[in-house]
From TrEMBL:
PANTHER family: HTH-TYPE TRANSCRIPTIONAL REGULATOR (PTHR46797), METHYLPHOSPHONATE SYNTHASE (PTHR46797:SF1). GO terms for cellular component: cytosol. Residues 33-87 form the HTH cro/C1-type domain. This is Helix-turn-helix protein. Keywords: DNA-binding.
Length: 133
């Protein structure tokens, strides 16, 4: 791991621990639920009403802050016009794709920045130097 002027590159090569953990199930589920809801141009209030939950709870689920029960996930799937099995398969595929993206982590002034390997991270720090392995 190299360091230069407060900038460290954390390698993520073969056989090393990933520099970015894969998303938690609740985070991937929330992202997919929000995507389905927005594809249908449905509001939080409408979708939550169809699922029998509060809009606040649905918002927290979509943001990955709450981990709903299987019954709640089934109700949300139904409210979004899909089956529990299809929703679970979509979330699993999203997590699988995420796990295949090689990444590297760069620490800038104590803040960790993540970028796909081969892509330049967005750097807004003046006089920043990016070190790559």
């Amino acid at each position: 791991m190299g360091e230069h002027n407060g900038l460290r590159v954390i390698p993520g090569g073969h056989g090393e621990r990933r520099s970015r953990p894969e998303p938690l199930w609740r985070e991937a589920l929330g992202e997919r639920l929000r995507a389905l809801r927005l594809e249908q141009r449905s509001t939080l209030v409408d979708t939550a009403g169809r699922a029998g939950i509060s809009p606040q709870y649905l918002s927290e689920v979509e943001r990955g802050r709450k981990e709903p029960s299987s019954e709640m996930i089934a109700a949300l799937a139904g409210a979004l016009g899909t089956s529990l099995g299809d929703l679970v398969a979509q979330v699993a595929e999203s997590m699988r794709r995420h796990a295949l993206v090689p990444t590297r982590a760069v620490v800038l002034g104590g803040q960790r920045q993540i970028a796909p390997s081969g892509a330049a991270p967005i750097i807004s720090a003046p006089n920043a130097v990016l070190l790559a392995a």
